[in-house]
Design brief:
This protein is mostly helical. The chain has 12 helices and no strands. It folds into 2 domains: 54 residues; 209 residues, Orthogonal Bundle (MetI-like fold).
Length: 319
């Protein structure tokens, strides 16, 4: 048998495939990176479980927030619904009392054009609200300008406190409207007389609360100030004012409530443009639904003023 036949019948095994020496480290690095990535990545089932747990936590948080909002809003909503329901039942048994639907229609009509002018005594509800607020602002500002410093003085000096105590005790219980004739006699005009009533009604809470705050400052603080020979201005700015501020803000809030309460009654008697006069004019026209709208306006504006003062008080540090 020839050598050629032997080569054909028994072929030699192919030579092993060889990689270039330079490519071996790069391939090994890629394989190591793939293995490391597989170790870091969680299994597919574990990833699904993690996503489900995150979704469950989110749903739980949303449910807790909704429950908290429901607990916060449900009682006032139920209270208002009960109030409107009782009002509707009473209005059905008393035809003279307008029901909620009629009052709502009157409110929509009033606020559709709140700033019209048809004369000095026929103006929109917006002008009446602004005029009442301006009187309250002027009277309240004057009361604060006088009452707060006077409260500091009678709280700081016992002799002055003993002098003012009987006068305050005598005049504070007097009805605000009892001061109106005095204002008309002195100022000879309705608008200053109304402002005078606001002033004399709002000044007492600020005087009393400020004086009480000064008297409750710890005596140790004042003794230290005396030892350090601090001036009266330093005592006021560094000791008295920070300590008295909570009492003073409480007096301011009480005074604002009194001022807004009194202005309607004062304007009923003095006339002009304002919520009180507007209520009295609507009564003369037998528009009871507008009177009820005015009652709600007085309540809403008073609430907004109260909340504004609460937010203002939170801006101060009482430390």
């Amino acid at each position: 048998m020839s050598a050629t036949a032997m080569t054909i019948d028994n072929p030699a095994a192919p030579a092993a495939e060889k990689r270039p020496p330079s490519a071996a480290p790069a391939v090994q690095a890629v394989e190591n990176a793939s293995a490391f990535r597989r170790r870091l990545m969680p299994p597919e089932g574990a990833l699904c479980r993690n996503q489900k747990s995150v979704s469950a936590v989110r749903r739980q948080r949303l449910g807790a927030g909704f429950a908290a909002a429901l607990r916060l809003l449900l009682p006032p909503v139920l209270g208002l619904a009960a109030f409107v329901g009782i009002w509707a039942l009473v209005s059905k048994s008393s035809p003279q009392l307008p029901g909620p639907a009629l009052v709502f229609d009157a409110a929509v009509q009033l606020f559709s054009d709140p700033f019209y002018r048809n004369g000095p005594n026929d103006q929109g509800i917006g002008w009446n609200i602004l005029n009442s607020l301006s009187r309250v602002g002027i009277g309240f500002g004057l009361a604060a300008l006088v009452g707060i410093p006077f409260g500091f003085m009678i709280g700081r000096f016992k002799f002055l406190n003993d002098m003012a105590a009987p006068i305050i005790s005598l005049l504070r219980p007097v009805s605000p409207l009892a001061w109106l004739p005095i204002g008309l006699m002195v100022f000879k005009a309705a608008n200053p007389a109304a402002i005078w009533v606001i002033f004399i009604s709002a000044i007492w809470p600020m005087i009393i609360n400020t004086a009480v705050g000064v008297q409750r400052v710890p005596q140790d603080y004042l003794n230290v100030a005396r030892v350090l020979s601090l001036s009266e201005w330093k005592v006021f700015t560094k000791i008295l004012f920070p300590a008295v501020l909570p009492y003073m803000m409480t007096g301011v809030r009480l005074s604002m409530g009194v001022a807004w309460l009194v202005i309607v009654a004062a304007e009923m008697l003095t006339g002009g443009v304002g919520l009180g006069f507007w209520v009295w004019d609507e009564w003369n026209n037998l528009k009871v639904e507008n009177i009820i709208v005015a009652i709600f306006i007085v309540g809403v504006v008073g609430l907004l003023l109260e909340q504004a003062l609460v937010l203002l008080a939170k801006q101060f540090s009482y430390e």
